[in-house]
Amino acid sequence: MVFKMRYFVFALVFITLFFQYSFASRIFLDEIQYYDFGESNLYKVRKMDNPFAVNPRPYDVIEYDLYLDWYNVMKNPTSMDSLDRIWFGVNTITAKSSVDNLTNLELDCAGLYIDSVFVSNGSEFQKVVPTPKVINKKLIIPLQTNLNNGDTVKIKVFYTYARNIPEENYRGFYLYPKGKFVGRLPAPFYDSVFVEERLAYTMSEPEDARYWMPCNDAPYDKANARITVRVPKDYVVASNGYLDKVLTDGDTAKIFFWISDKPITTYLMSVTTSKYVIFSDWYRKVTNPNDSIEIQYYVWEKDFKATKTDGSEYNAKNTFQYTSKMMEFFSKTFLEYPFIKYGMTSVMPFNFGGMEHQTITTINRVWLRQNSQFGIAHELAHQWIGDLVTCATWNDIWFNEGGATWSEALYAESLWGDWGYNYFLLSSRQSYLKKGGLTLPPIYGLPTNTIFGDYAVLVYQKASWVYHMLKFMLGDSLFFQTFRSFLQDFSFQSITTEDIINYFSEKVTNPLVDFSTFFNQWLFKAGHPVFVVNSAFHSFPNQDNRYEGVVTISQTQSGNNIPEVFKCPVRILFKSGDTLTTSSTLVVEERTQSFKVSLPFFPDSIFIDTTSVLCEVGDIYLTSLESNQNEEIKIFPNPVEKNQILFVEFSEKYELPIILEIFDILGNKLLTKKLDLSSGRIVSFDDVGNLPSGMYVLRVHSPKQIHNHLIQKN
Ligand SMILES: [Zn+2]
Q1: Distance (Å) from CA 387 to ligand 1 centroid
Q2: How much is the pLDDT for 148?
Q3: Do 202 and 74 fall within a single domain?
Q4: Residue 344 bridge partners (DSSP)
Q5: Ligand 1 center from residue 1 Cα (angstroms)
Q6: What does the mean pLDDT of the chain come to?
Q7: Distance, CA 467 to ligand 1 centroid (Å)?
Q8: Residue 150: CB partners within 8 Å, gap ≥ 6?
Q9: CA of 382 to the centre of ligand 1 (A)
Q10: Residues 464 and 539 in one domain
Q11: How far apart are CA 300 and CA 628, in angstroms?
Q12: How far is it, in rounded angstroms, from Cα 542 to Cα 545?
């Protein structure tokens, strides 16, 4: 109660400031430009001395109480004059020191003009003189008295947004006039698109919240948030959490009071305003069917009224019809939906498809006329993987994006079964390989400006495989049990990759591959295994009527930061004809490793199941361990003992010339011989008896065919 009274006092001061600045002079705008530092130093390649370092600031934000007066920027629907692009904000930040003798508080702040700053250590707010300035995108506020560990302080920053910049340079805050031509959409839509109503919104991930509010703009620091926004009375405001109240302010304005009742990090905070129609759907809780959660949609009236579903109209009701089903699916798969409401705002133009703002995803309006179910599922899954539990640093972004991309596959599985799941997995694999595969760096430790750009395929598609391979290794039941308890235990917190590794190591004993190796090779190292398979089976069954054989799996990958050996379970499929199939999951742990296998039939083909591990597959060889005297080619002796000579004899049916090559299992050619009319039909290899023990491949090229045969050297 006291807090709110104080708030209104400052709102009054603020409104006075508003009128003062509404008639701002050119000098004022020049000042803004002076404080608007360049973008070039924003991103730096991270040092990897301690790969898990969070390097938190020496305080923890408890609450942001944010007041945004967007009346001025919204009042004229079509104007983009510089004076119509100025707005004012007040951020009241409650922070708790985590060290002794804290003398000042450093906030992130960019492109904003600081009007005044007040500090309260429990008593009245005192003005900081002189007013701190933004330097190198930081706002350093001297505290009136030093803080000790656990002490709290309130800081009130009055600021002005007045960036007179072209749209392509927008950061954090986006403003578009009614009637703006967005562009012509490509096939099959073709039509021209206009901004239907004046539109303003924020878009912050990864580090742009500082462009619209001074804050600790780091994903490790979650806080409660109140977001209060003043707009012309015919506009509505969507934001995080629940709408506490809407007050009318005079004849022309409204003030929307939003409250995040759960902790939120800055990049997930969001404000969107336009002349929207709001409509709702309800998700019935899986844990309590008598209770429901509201899903609120904010769309332009035209899109609400649309009836066509053939893609010729932006049809909000058509696009959103599956959301409550999806919420049910993810609530069953992960945990009960963790927030007080869900919703989506449709905006255009938008540089992205969707953005998982906590409880209120922003989507590109284009989604209203496309099949966007998987985009919607992706952003919804982020409410658990990203919002409920959040990456603590941008190095950990693979947790968010890999998880949401993998969730698309889970949703596909719920619709279409295994086929749907595998289709998404293999599409991700394809994207990753196409983008460079073995030439790409590790998932972890990418420069922040590449995670949603050049290397997005690593933190989205490749990382979705990290989830999948963990699930494959543990089996569905153990994996989901552990993952659910992880989400539960870290609810409303931010986590590092180290937290994930430690959690799984603690909860799951004796995994097929220990977790430090598993995560190390997939996150901190680059690439993936490239397999070559050699196998040889007896062509006669044993006394148990099974066919025994040896499968040798070799890894041939090489490159910068790529492990010599990936330790991973690999599923091998054996087939005979079209009907007989069996599989065997082998845990490879060496560069070349042989496994004894017994099958219920003699296989005529072998495959690596590329849904079991992210890999590429080179040559696969399969042969019989017995030489069959009826065949047109005789290879003897096989196996070859030390110092023995290998003979290969061809029947009259073989056309000459024939070229014979012997390879090791990594594909290196060791020996070559040619058989022509002058040399008869038998070839001898004197040197095979001197080769190291192991499997070799004899490749036979005749004019009409190429055969591979396995040679075993004892
Ligand atoms: Zn995402």
Answers
A1: 11
A2: 96
A3: yes
A4: 297, 361
A5: 39
A6: 89
A7: 15
A8: 96, 97, 98
A9: 7
A10: no
A11: 76
A12: 5
| Cα(610)–Cα(557) distance, integer angstroms | 16
Confidence of residue 11 (pLDDT cuts 50, 70, 90): very low
Distance 373 CA to ligand 1 centre (A): 14
Q: How far is the CA of 577 from the centre of ligand 1 (A)?
A: 43
The CATH number linked to 639 is 2.60.40.1930
- How close is the Cα of 354 to the center of ligand 1, in Å? 8
Residue 644: inside a domain: yes
Q: Which helix (H) or strand (E) holds 69?
A: strand 59-69
pLDDT at position 642: 84
Report which of 629, 436, 642, 626 is spatially closest to residue 540, judged by C-alpha positions: 626
Cβ(474)–Cβ(482) below 8 Å: yes
Rounded to the nearest whole angstrom, what is the distance from the C-alpha of residue 50 to the centroid of ligand 1? 26
* Cα of 43 from ligand 1 centre, angstroms: 20
Helix, strand, or coil here: 185? coil
pLDDT at 55 over 90: no
Measured CA to CA, the distance from residue 704 to residue 685 in angstroms comes to 23
How many whole angstroms from 380 Cα to the centroid of ligand 1?
9
> Which residue, 248, 208, 272, 263, is CA-closest to 68?
272
Distance 51 CA to ligand 1 centre (A): 23
User: Range of 664's domain?
Assistant: 633-713
Q: How many domains does the chain have?
A: 4
Question: CA dist 161 to 89, 113, 117, 212, 252, Å?
Answer: 8, 6, 15, 7, 22
Three-class SS of residue 148?
coil
Whether residues 496 and 476 share a domain: the answer is yes
Q: Which amino acid is at 144?
A: Q
Strand order in the sheet with 138-147: 102-108, 138-147, 134-135
- Find out whether 109 and 137 touch, Cβ atoms under 8 Å: yes
Last residue of a domain, one of 275, 298, 331: 275
Given CA atoms 364, 272, 141, 137 in this order, what sign does their dihedral have?
Answer: positive
Using DSSP bridges, classify how beta strands 616-624 and 530-537 pair: parallel, antiparallel or unpaired. Answer: parallel
CA distance 362 to 61: 25
396 alpha carbon to ligand 1 midpoint, in Å?
13
The answer, yes or no, to whether residue 33 has pLDDT greater than 80, is no
Q: Say which residue, 673 or 107, is predicted with more confidence.
A: 107
For ligand 1, the distance from its centroid to the CA atom of residue 233, given in whole angstroms, is 34
